[in-house]
Fold this sequence. Notes:
The structure is a homodimer of 351-residue chains.
Chain A: E1 4-9, H1 13-22, E2 28-34, E3 38-41, H2 48-55, E4 58-60, E5 77-79, E6 92-94, H3 98-105, E7 111-114, H4 123-133, E8 139-142, H5 147-155, H6 157-163, E9 166-168, H7 177-185, E10 191-202, H8 211-218, H9 226-230, H10 234-243, E11 247-250, H11 257-263, E12 272-279, E13 290-296, E14 302-308, H12 315-335, E15 340-342
Parallel strand pairs in A: 1-2, 1-7, 7-8, 8-9, 9-15, 10-12
Antiparallel strand pairs in A: 2-3, 3-6, 4-5, 10-13, 11-12, 13-14
Amino acid sequence: MDDISFAVLGTGGIGRRTLEVSTQTDGVTPVAACDRHGIAVDHDGLDVEELLAATEGNVDSDPNPADDARADGGAAVKQAGEDVGVVASAQAEPTETPIEDVIDESEAIDAVLMALPNLEHDFIPRVGERFADAGYEGVLVDVLKRSRVIGMLDDRAERFEESGITFVCGAGATPGFLTGAAALAAQSFVEVEEVDIWWGVGLKSGYEDNRGTVREDIAHLDGYDLETARNLSDEEIEEIVDEHDGRLEFHDMEHADDVLLERAGICDAEDVHVGGILDVRSDEKPTTTTVSVTGTTFDGETGTNTFQLDDDTCMAANVNGPALGYVKAGVRRNRAGEYGVFGPADLMPGF
Amino acid sequence: MDDISFAVLGTGGIGRRTLEVSTQTDGVTPVAACDRHGIAVDHDGLDVEELLAATEGNVDSDPNPADDARADGGAAVKQAGEDVGVVASAQAEPTETPIEDVIDESEAIDAVLMALPNLEHDFIPRVGERFADAGYEGVLVDVLKRSRVIGMLDDRAERFEESGITFVCGAGATPGFLTGAAALAAQSFVEVEEVDIWWGVGLKSGYEDNRGTVREDIAHLDGYDLETARNLSDEEIEEIVDEHDGRLEFHDMEHADDVLLERAGICDAEDVHVGGILDVRSDEKPTTTTVSVTGTTFDGETGTNTFQLDDDTCMAANVNGPALGYVKAGVRRNRAGEYGVFGPADLMPGF
Lengths: 351, 351
């Protein structure tokens, strides 16, 4: 396969680390990156080192900017010196319309990774729609988490197909990496009874970079929902973190692994359970990330296959490696003329 | 995807169990099965229950029949009553040319699973070639084990492409299921240092059905090779089994996981190690089947991700579920116009 050019929408934790990982990944070249303040484009390949170094700095946090100004990972823009966010890079230009600017360049871009916050459910679907409206023929990949968003993408599947877009949704760690692992682990069974995804994340050094993710997770705590989480100030988030001594435990999260496994024919959505522990005061994982798939074999035995990530692999490694993998998988499908909406399990060997 | 019609070449342990698993798998219909003595064809779908029941019986073992007569899993034909092997089924006809007969029917067959012994390295490649010579446009899937065979298939890739054949090689458990798991587990890492595949098989009740597999494994024991293993009588095999108290341990096996992972860009073939323990006197697995993938993350950490199969999932479940999965994946590729030779890891999400 020819080299794949890709853009990143959003330069929060996920966007920045994807750029970094791509410099160590064969066959992918980052050619554009934007946040709410600016855009950097170089179709011969961005200088990632310069871009990351120039934008390393303070956090500028505002989870509720206007639509086009959301291209920064929401609550996670880095800034240093006078220029804010990506504009601090010598490769970037300021803009009021970063997403529109990427769309303008998109004819020469094979894939676009949307590392955007999605506190409004339909934000990422609407961004996808804008690419379709512009007649983009390529791959869109998101790393969104919530189940209900998949349906919103499906509602737009026909528009993506008409445009020639292959949309890969939920292509991070969970959903994404672990969804694919569950689809694989299910292959011993003719009937899958339960998929249990349990994650551990130690985010001390990555905390500043990933406030958007933490905010989304807080919505899963008792007493909170997406609406209340969106309206929390940074100080209020810190208070919640303090109350839990930096360690937040989640059960029955609304993670799209459920609908993504159901649509791939692996099991019923209601039999998928996602939970985990986030420790923002340690880089050690508070628990080992484990996917357990329980099912019945053709000869009537019940068993549980498991997939475990080493505690020494950080969240960024487990999100961005797979995200770039799914970018490649999406481009392969796109070049074969397969358009529409695909989940991670749909891209597995057709199990 | 439309329903997939498939044929099975060989009705030894793997062929028979694939037919059985397919009756519990959505979207696949077995329409032909052959062994060295006969062929059963029904394009509306075979009656698998009748076929398996009718052919349950004694073992007729001859590892060195002529080419066309090898379509029976080699050392593993079942027989009962006067009619030998598949001919005992009311759906079957005797034939001297079973493979040719399947080729004659192949225009209406989406995929052909080659559950054939491969004690001569080029046997399966040559069978594939015969399908290409006949202008077959469809999917060939094998469950072969040995690394050197992959190169022989690659040598024929152009002929497969010209014919319109999508050849999925090494699509059983290992290589196959566990190769895919290794490709998946590698996604945390930018550099993979080692892949260790360690399997446990308890084969007491499946032993009679799987003598061909046991014979191939014996070739990996110290003091044996493929040539000597092929020439062993059944009695000599029993002696070897007795000497080891029914428990054979293997290290550094020539399993194609190595070249299949290398060709998919996951790691160097020499960094892949395959071994395991086979216990033919117990149905309990003597050790837990585990895939360990060790690598370095983008941020310089070293870790090991693991995939484990439950001890209660038997070899047949772990071979045939994935084999049918790879059949489906192959048909999807074939319908998208992708021809040539693919390994299991090539069919993963393009990592």
